[in-house]
Fold this protein.
Amino acid sequence: MAEDPQSQGVPAVVKDPAPEVAVLVEEEEAPKVDAEVGKTLDDNSVVKPCAPKEKRDFPMRETVISLGSGGELRFNWFVSLFGLAFLWGISIYCMVEPDKAKVTLDEWFAETIQYFTWFYIVGNPIMTFFIFWLAYRYGNIKLGHKDAEPEFSDMSYFAMLFSAGVGVGLFFYGVSEPLWHQNSNYFSDAGYRSQDEIDQWALEITLYHWGFAGWSPYIMIAICCGLASYAFDLPLTVRSCFYPIFGEYIWGWIGDAIDGWSVVMTVAGVCTSLGLGVIQITTGLQRLEWVDPTKTELTGVYVAIIWIVTAFATISVVTGLKMGIKFLSVLGFSLGCLILFLCFVMEKSYYLMNLLVQTTGFYMQWSIFQVPFWTDSFGSLNPGEGRSVDGNSSETWWIGAWTVFYMAWWVAWACFVGLFIARISKNRTIRSVVFGVFLAPTAYAIIWFSFMGGIGLRQARQALELEKLGTDFFQDAAHYQSDSSEFCYDVPQEDVYVDGVEDPIFVNTLPGITPVCKFDTTSSPAAWFNVMYSYSYPGTGPDGNFGGFGQFLSGLSIFTLAIYFITSSDSGSLVVDTLASNGAEEHHWLQRVFWAFTEGGVATGLLVAGGSDALGALQAASIVFGLPFNFLIIIMCWCILVMCRTLEEHGQANENMDARLFMPKKTWKMPVYGGICNVMEVLFSFGNINKTLQASGLTAPTAQHFVGFAKNALFPFVTLYSVYSAIDLKGKNKVTNIIGTLSYAALHVGWIVLFICGTINYGFVALAWTMFFTNTCILISVRMTLRGMIGISGNIVGDFVACSFLYPQALLQMEIQLAAEGDLSAGDS
C-alpha cells in the first residue's frame, strides 16, 4: 500500500506520463473532439503534432448575410453587437450629459488610480523582463512556419507598426511632455536638484513612458496572437491566446466576451485619439492662419477634419494592408524623419548629440529597475494622511495623471496595436519581433525625445534667460517679450552690450532661431508649433524679409500628423473587423467601411455634443475598462510559454501544429468556469448550443450544478468534510478532518458576519478578509492533495483563483471528480 498522503503532511503527486503542463484554471476532462468532423475520439486516439492541411472549422457564432453582387458579409453577431452596444451606450451618455459623464468617469478613474496604481506599475516591468527572457530562450521560434519568409520588408514593417502604435503621440507630446515634467513630480520637486538635473529627469520620465513601458503590452499580444494563429492555426483574435487555459471552451461565450471587450477597447481608443488629435491639428491650422486664429467656435472645423481623415482612412483600409496601409505608413514615417532631421540640423546640433548620448545612458541606468517600480507612495498621500511637511513632495495627482495614465493607456490600446503587429509579423522569429517592436522603437523614441524634447527644453531655458536679462539690466521682465505671445521672447540677433559692463551680457551663437518660448500649460499643443516657428531667420533673403521656415515646418507637421491619424484609423478598422469576423483576415470591404465610419461617427458625436469634455470622459472610461486587460496580458506570459514549449518539444515544422497539444492528458470533469457558468452559453445561443461545443463538455447546466453551487455557497463545510473523508484513504485522520471542517465553518460564518459589520466599522473588514483568505488556504491544501492523488496537473495560482472567489465551484468540482473517480483507495493498493 502507498503511504497515506495526509500522514506525510504533503500531497501525494502522481506523475503524468506525458510532459507535465501547469494550468492556471484547469480544463474539463471532456471527450477529445475532432473539430474537422465533429466526432469524439476514443482514449487510444493520438492528437498528431501537425494539424490537417484544411483549416479547422471552429465552433464560433457566425452570421452570414448574402449580398446581391455575389459577395457576403460574415461576422460574429455577439461580438459585434456587444462592442457596438457598449461603445454607443457609453458614448451616448457622454454626448447627452458630458459634464456629468466627465465627473462620474473621472471619479471612476481616480478610484482606479487609488486602488490599482501598484498593479499597473508592477505589471509593466513583469512584461518587460519576460519579453527579454523570451527573446533569449525562445528567440528562434517563428510566428509561422519554419521556412516561411516574412511578408514585409524590415523598413515597411517598422513604419507600419510605428504608425499604428505611437506615431501620433510623438507629435503631440514630442516637445510638450518634457516641459510638463519640469515640476510637480518627485524627481523635480525634491528640493535639492539643479535645473540641469530637473531637465534631465524630465526627459528620463518622458522616455520611460514611451520606451519599453509603452511597447510591452503591444508585443505581448502580438507574440501571443501571432503564435496562436500562425503556428497553431487558431483564429487571429485575442480569444485564441487563452486556448491553453480554456481549451475548446474558448469558442463559446468566454471567447465572445473577450473579443467583444477587445472591440470596445479598440474603437474607444481610436475614437478618443481621433477626436483629441483634431484639436491639435486645428491649433496648427490657426497658427498658419488657415483657420481664423480668433475663432473660438471650432466644432465645424473639428467635424470637417474628422471626416476628411475618416474618408482617407476608409480608402486606405479598402485597398488593403499591403497597399493603402503600407504606403501611408511608410510615407508618414519618412516625413516624420524628415522633420526630425531638419530640426536637428537647424538647432544647436552638437548640443543635441551630447544630450542624446547622455540621455541614452541615463535611460539605461534608471529605466530598467528604479523608475519602472516607482509608485510615488509617499507623494500620493493627502494632507492629513501623513503628507510631507517640508513642502518638497510631488503633487498627489501626478503619478495618476501621468505614469499610471500611460500604463493604462498602453493597455487600452494593446488589443488594437498588438493584433495589428501580429498580423504584419507573420513568419518572423520571436527575436526579430522583439528587436523590431521593442528595441528599435525604444531607440527611435530616445532619438526623437532627445532631439525634439531637447529643443523644447533649450528654448524654454533661453526664454527664461532673456526674461532674467530684462529684469536684471532693463528693470523690465518683458523687455525681450515677443508681440506674438506673452510666453515667447525675441532673441537678439547680435551680441548685447550695456553701459558699464565690458563684456556682452548676451552672446548669440544661434542666429536665426527666434522667438523662443516658455511652456504655456494652458495650450500644450502649441509647444510643437512654437518650435517650428522659431526657425524664422529674420533679416535674411533677397530683401531681408524672409518669412522663415515656420509655415513650411508647421504645414509639413500637420500633413504628417494627418497621415498618422489616417494610419491609426485604418489599422483600427482592420483590427476591429478581424475581431468581429472571428479572426478572418479576408472580409468584404463593406465591413471595414462600417467600422471606419463607426469610429468617425462616435468621435463626431462626442465633439459636437460635449467637446473635449465628452472625449475626455470616453478616454477615462476606456482606461478604467482596460484594467481587466492588464490582468489578462500578464496571464498571456504563461500562455506564450506553453506555446513555445510545445513548439520546441515537437519541433517547428512547415505545417501548423495542432493546438490541442496544449492540453494536459487528464483534467477535471468540471472546470471552475463550467457548470453553472454554462448558463451564459445557453442564453447567447438561445438554448441551441453548438454540437461540437457540447462534445467538448460545454453543455447546459444541470440541476446538480445549480443545487451544488447554492449548497457550497451557503454551507461549503458540508462538501468539504466529504472531500476530507474521501482523500483520507486509511481513515486515520477523522479527528483532524472534523477539526478542519469545523474551523472552516466557523471562519466562513465569521467573514460573512464581519463584512456586514464593516458597514458600521471598517476595522471589521480587515478581520473579515483575514478569515476569508484563511479559508482559501485550507481549501487550497485540500485541492492540491486531491490533484496529486488523481494525477491532475496544476499550480498554486490556479488553486488560489479557484479556492478563493470561486470556492463554490471549486468544491463542486472536487465533489464531481470524486464521484467519477470512485473509491480512491482502490488505486492505492
